């Protein structure tokens, strides 16, 4: 490259290899008088002999020197060029390094700002309610760089669950990964959008089913019809949509539907399946009021997005909300981010709508733009919808808060989760016996709970103190100090601390902080029982000239606090009282009626009725075997459970969903084990038992006339009476053998089979998952044998726990367990228990029987499997009723009554 810097004159004497070329004419030697010789080189050469040789040597020397000088010049020149370029490179390198450093500094700064803004938001922006975003396209490339920030902001906005939309195989898979990473917050849908319908291939269905088996997968979709853009041919769209519809109907999974300008076809395809259609939402609805009404009349939900701001047509979504024809009770909210930006500040929106948007929603909305909408804009969408409907945002379905007290539900949920409420036998400071202990100090270990409580307190204070100016927040030592400190930050009010005893040195003051006489302060306390200790605090404050009229506490135990303080002219405002706590614990299945009564009596509480609060089913996650029940395990026979309908929603195995539903509908949790050898006799009793049972269990390999005709008769009876057919084959082998055995022996006629966990997860899953997923087989779930009823059996704890783990990790195919006692907290799994008799305790062959009450109430099983205690009696029909009633009564006693 540097050759280009060599002057042209030099090149004249260079060959391509850089060698000097001798000129044949007009070239004399230096000092030889060549000029005078008249330009004829011939005379010198002609001299011949020694002189000629000398001349030649001189000439050679001359050319040698010339060549050398030229090469040296050239080399020097190139060296200079190198030096020049090296210098330049060094400069460039330095500039490059400087730029790189600056970029990394800027990036750090950028992250810092993002974090700071998130932190600032945590302090400045309080959410008033929680929301679920049922559709955000987080797999969109625009989120690639800052997905974590986007998710963090969505939480900040008050979104408690977020569903990522899967629009094709690839994006659905990516969504599954994201949901796995943020389990419990992110969920996803698996489906193929009408735009991508043309890409559906034979393998797609299997992949969709696999994705749908994930516990985080909440719906089939986004699927549907789009005759507006027609990116896939319409007939292909219909075909692919129908495939997905059928999967959803078969699995009973919700549908997330896209429809544009294809209303009639959509209605037709859905109506054709109206019998089996699961719950479905027309996502991002942009159609007319009439179309919405039609969908609503079919039982569908309407998904609304930020699109609402621009639809000003006479019969569009704005009009539908205003007229109430699209009622908010049937809406679900979604951002459809990064699309459908809600321009809630648009001048053309009605003033009352613009003005209804809260500060919180506006703050979060700022992070979204036309270029890229974000889930954190959902509160703005929610409030815009509420304003058009003339309703409050917290009235919106899936806003998960009790209307009366924003943030409270969240606080209660976290308190339950973190073991603040302990049930058992306790003695209070006063010496009083108490079956409940509320340990608010547990909250200090959980910043999220502290924040929620302090936010709610701030809100309460602002509401009460709106008209009465105060200056200063007094924290009562010690437990209330952390709350008071945080609230003082939130409210920008000075903090005062009251000491337990005066210092013996220095100021000897009892009140720390800066204040002056006549100043009105508020007092913050954690728990108030009778209010006695607060009385002392108030007296101390008043002695120093401070004005105290209002005390705020987290929990009033309903034991006379407000009345006692009233005597001092002080109002007690509480975030929670005992009644609310008990109502909540009962609503989420943590407290039985007996426990409630016990608490009321022991604490002499002023109410006798358990208050009912409507806690949405999303709350069920709090219903685990946590502290609230754990401490009391030995004392109570009844364990509180969720209702069967609630559990149906949590179940993922298809047969479990069906079972929960039929148990509820038929009011039975009895499974009859018909262990006769004569096939006809089994059918006869199954027909009689049909109305009383949720399942009929057989051992196919013990039946005389076992053949296809027999199984089809049993299937007909199962269909007639709506019970499950349970083949108790107790499979246990390697995956391949298992698969062959099941296909040949049970898959076509039984709904459910028993399997030992002994072969391990891989064998079990590989054999059963494809069979269960195959729509042409009847088999739709398995029961893992975790414990046996017979004396001296070898199912030890290690085996039972291993089996439990397999079940919990494969809830899409495992219905539950054959067990003696409840072994898993997963509420979608069902505990079936054999070894039950109301009259005898053993058969003398190792079988051990116990009562229905023990099996259901104490050992917390769900279904009793009863065999000979019914079948071997002379009047099985009356025994059926007896066992059905006993089992159902025991189960119902533990389920919520409302
Ligand atoms: O009430 P029984 O004793 O007449 O019948 C109980 C039924 C029988 C057993 O094969 C079966 O339940 N069984 C099982 C199952 C269902 O797998 C496990 C067990 O531990 N004990 C038990 O009896 O058909």
Automatic annotation (TrEMBL):
Listed Gene3D superfamilies: 3.40.50.2020, Aldolase class I (3.20.20.70), Metal-dependent hydrolases (3.20.20.140), Single helix bin (1.20.5.500)
Subcellular location: Mitochondrion
Listed EC numbers: 2.4.2.10, 4.1.1.23
Pfam families: IATP, OMPdecase, Pribosyltran, TatD_DNase
Alphabetical list of CDD domains matching this protein: OMP_decarboxylase_like, PRTases_typeI, TatD_DNAse
Binding annotation for substrate: 675, 697, 789, 847, 867-868
UniProt entry keywords in alphabetical sequence: Cytoplasm, Decarboxylase, Exonuclease, Glycosyltransferase, Hydrolase, Lyase, Magnesium, Metal-binding, Mitochondrion, Multifunctional enzyme, Nuclease, Pyrimidine biosynthesis, Transferase, Transit peptide
Gene Ontology CC, one term: mitochondrion
Pathways involved: Pyrimidine metabolism; UMP biosynthesis via de novo pathway; UMP from orotate: step 1/2; Pyrimidine metabolism; UMP biosynthesis via de novo pathway; UMP from orotate: step 2/2
Catalytic residue positions: 728 (for ompdecase activity), 730 (for ompdecase activity), 733 (for ompdecase activity)
Family in the record: In the N-terminal section; belongs to the purine/pyrimidine phosphoribosyltransferase family.
Name of the protein in its database record: Uridine 5'-monophosphate synthase
Source organism of the structure: Pristionchus pacificus
Originating gene: WBGene00099445
């Amino acid at each position: 490259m540097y050759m280009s810097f060599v002057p042209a004159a030099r090149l004249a004497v260079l060959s391509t290899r850089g060698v000097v070329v001798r000129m044949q004419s007009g070239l004399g030697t230096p000092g030889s008088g060549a000029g005078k010789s008249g330009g004829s080189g011939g005379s010198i050469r002609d001299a011949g002999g020694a002189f000629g040789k000398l001349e030649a040597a001189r000439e050679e020397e001359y050319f040698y020197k010339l060549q050398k000088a030229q090469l040296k010049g050239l080399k020097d020149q190139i060296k200079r060029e190198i030096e020049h370029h090296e210098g330049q490179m060094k400069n460039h390198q330095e500039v490059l390094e400087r730029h790189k450093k600056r970029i990394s500094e800027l990036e750090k700064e950028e992250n810092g700002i993002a974090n700071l803004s998130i932190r600032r938001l945590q302090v400045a922006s309080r959410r008033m309610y929680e929301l679920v975003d049922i559709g955000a396209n987080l797999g969109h490339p625009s989120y690639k760089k800052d997905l974590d920030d986007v998710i963090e902001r969505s939480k900040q906005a008050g979104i408690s669950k977020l569903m990522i939309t899967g629009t094709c195989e690839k994006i659905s898979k990516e969504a599954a990964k994201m949901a796995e990473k943020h389990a419990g917050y992110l969920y996803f849908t698996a489906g193929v959008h009408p735009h991508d319908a043309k890409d559906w291939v034979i393998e797609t269905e299997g992949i969709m089913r696999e994705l749908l088996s994930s516990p985080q997968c909440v719906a089939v979709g986004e699927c549907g019809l789009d005759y507006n853009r027609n990116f896939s041919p319409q007939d292909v769209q219909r075909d692919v949509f129908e495939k997905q519809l059928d999967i959803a109907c078969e699995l009973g999974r919700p549908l997330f539907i896209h429809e544009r300008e294809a209303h009639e076809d959509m209605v037709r395809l859905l109506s054709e399946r109206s019998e089996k259609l699961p719950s479905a939402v027309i996502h991002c609805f942009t159609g007319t009021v009439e179309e919405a009404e039609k969908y609503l009349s079919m039982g569908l939900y309407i998904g609304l997005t930020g699109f609402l701001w621009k639809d000003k047509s006479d019969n569009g979504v704005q009009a539908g909300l205003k007229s109430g024809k699209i009622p908010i009770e049937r809406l679900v909210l979604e951002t459809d981010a990064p699309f459908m930006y809600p321009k809630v500040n648009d001048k053309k929106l009605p003033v009352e709508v613009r003005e209804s948007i809260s500060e919180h929603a506006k703050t979060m909305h700022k992070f979204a733009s036309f270029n890229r909408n974000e889930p954190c804009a959902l509160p703005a969408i929610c409030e815009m919808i509420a304003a058009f409907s003339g309703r409050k945002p917290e009235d919106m379905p899936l806003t998960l808060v009790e209307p009366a007290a924003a943030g409270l539900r969240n606080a209660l949920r976290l308190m339950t989760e973190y073991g603040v409420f302990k049930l058992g036998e306790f003695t209070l400071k006063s010496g009083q016996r108490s079956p409940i202990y509320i340990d608010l100090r547990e909250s200090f270990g959980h910043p999220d709970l502290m924040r929620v409580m302090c936010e709610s307190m701030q809100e309460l204070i602002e509401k009460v103190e709106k008209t009465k100016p105060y200056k200063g927040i007094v924290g009562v030592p010690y437990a209330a100090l952390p709350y008071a400190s945080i609230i003082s930050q939130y409210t920008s009010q000075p903090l005062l601390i009251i000491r337990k005893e005066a210092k013996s040195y220095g100021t000897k003051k009892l009140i720390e902080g800066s204040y002056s006489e006549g100043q009105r302060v508020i007092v913050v306390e954690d728990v108030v029982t009778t209010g006695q200790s607060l009385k002392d605090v108030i007296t101390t404050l008043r002695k120093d000239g401070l004005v105290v009229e209002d005390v705020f506490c987290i929990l009033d135990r309903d034991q006379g606090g407000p009345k006692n303080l009233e005597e001092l002219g002080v109002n007690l405002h509480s975030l929670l009282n005992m009644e609310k706590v008990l109502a909540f614990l009962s609503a989420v299945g943590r407290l039985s009626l007996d426990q409630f009564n016990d608490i009321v009596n022991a604490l002499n509480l002023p109410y006798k009725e358990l208050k009912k609060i409507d806690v949405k089913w999303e709350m069920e996650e709090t219903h685990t075997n946590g502290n609230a029940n754990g401490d009391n395990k030995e004392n109570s026979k009844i364990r509180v459970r969720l209702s069967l309908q609630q559990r149906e929603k949590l179940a993922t195995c298809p047969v479990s969903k069906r079972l929960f539903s039929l148990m509820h509908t038929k009011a039975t949790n009895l499974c009859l084990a018909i262990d006769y050898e004569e096939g006809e006799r089994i059918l006869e009793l199954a027909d009689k038992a049909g109305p009383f049972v949720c399942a009929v269990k057989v051992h196919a390999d013990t039946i005389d006339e076992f053949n296809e005709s027999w199984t089809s008769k049993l299937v007909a009876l199962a269909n007639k009476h709506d019970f499950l057919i349970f083949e108790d084959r107790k499979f246990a082998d390697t995956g391949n053998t298992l698969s062959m055995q099941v296909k040949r022996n049970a898959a076509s006629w039984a709904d459910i089979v028993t399997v030992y966990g002994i072969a391990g997860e891989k064998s079990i899953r590989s054999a059963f998952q494809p069979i269960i997923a195959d729509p042409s087989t009847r088999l739709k779930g398995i029961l893992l044998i975790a414990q046996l009823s017979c004396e001296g059996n070898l199912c030890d704890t290690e085996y039972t726990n291993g089996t439990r783990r397999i079940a919990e990790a494969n809830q899409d195919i495992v219905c539950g367990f054959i067990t003696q006692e409840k072994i898993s907290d997963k509420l979608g799994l069902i505990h079936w228990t054999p070894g039950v008799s109301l009259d005898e305790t053993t058969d003398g062959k190792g079988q051990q029987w116990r009562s229905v009450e023990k099996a259901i109430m104490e050992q917390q099983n769900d279904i009793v499997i009863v065999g000979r205690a019914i079948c071997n009696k002379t009047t099985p029909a009356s025994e059926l009723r007896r066992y059905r009633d006993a089992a159902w009564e025991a189960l119902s006693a533990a389920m919520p009554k409302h």
